[in-house]
Amino acid sequence: KKIIETKDIQKTYRMGSEEVRxxxxxxxxxxxxxxVAFMGPSGSGKSTLMNIIGCLDTPTAGxxxxxxxxxxxxxxxxxxxxRNKEIGFVFQTFNLLPRASCLExxxxxxxxxxxxxxxxxEKAFKALDSVGLGDRVHHKPNELSGGQRQRxxxxxxLVNDPSIILADEPxxxxxxxxxxxxxxxxxxxxxxxxxxxxxxxxxxxxxxxxRVVRLRDGLVETDTLNPNPTRGK
Length: 233
Ligand code: ADP
Ligand code: ADP
Fold this sequence. Notes:
Layout: E1 2-15, E2 18-31, E3 35-39, H1 46-53, E4 61-66, E5 69-70, H2 76-86, E6 87-91, H3 102-112, H4 117-130, H5 146-158, E7 164-168, H6 176-191, E8 195-199, H7 203-206, E9 211-216, E10 219-225
Parallel strand pairs: 3-8, 3-9, 6-7, 7-8
Antiparallel strand pairs: 1-2, 1-4, 4-5, 9-10
Helix pairs in contact: 3-4, 3-5, 4-5, 5-6
The chain binds adenosine-5'-diphosphate (2 copies).
């Protein structure tokens, strides 16, 4: 079942009289439960495509269908609503609130979703437990290792039970061993049926994904299934 479909999407940034065609024409279908890596050189359009898929931005032209809804021309408020419901974001720099506990960080998206305090704490605890941090809920981010911080961020991405997990360079700030641990967790999430899209520069990280889409100059250069993805330990 299709969860994402972009039809000839284009994105042009205007800066004064200059135009940058960040996406020239991208048509791509991603089904529910797929695990996809976006690769490509700096400036090839990966962030732009992720921003559009994540409903942080809209295409200049073309159509984007997310979960059977055409989101190409939605207003900022409509996009925000879709984002909260459908997308879990994981970032290279974790983006956690430093003064808040792990539990509070993970519970944050549930405030916007309108859940009461008890339910927020229950769901946040469950999400933290599912990433192996059930015993760290009252710690602050600076009391945790990089890998543990990324786990908190992943728990926050999962807490709303999103349709898609979008991860932009999720291992970019982690050492090799910790990166593989995080990929192990992504592997488990994929096994559980989650749809995962990640951007990475690293071949060995991309090798965990089941499909690799390479962008170049705002176009899809190659889109290949990985016959033998890394399955971890
Ligand atoms: P990466 O290559 O790690 O994906 P970039 O350095 O290309 O990241 O971009 C980082 C952020 O800066 C992105 O959110 C992107 O939209 C924005 N950005 C990139 N290039 C420009 C630019 N020329 N002007 C303004 N913002 C930009
Ligand atoms: P990547 O993530 O692959 O590095 P980006 O999507 O960040 O690529 O950038 C694609 C192109 O669009 C680059 O030429 C970049 O400089 C430009 N760009 C990205 N974001 C902006 C922006 N906000 N304003 C102007 N140009 C941008």
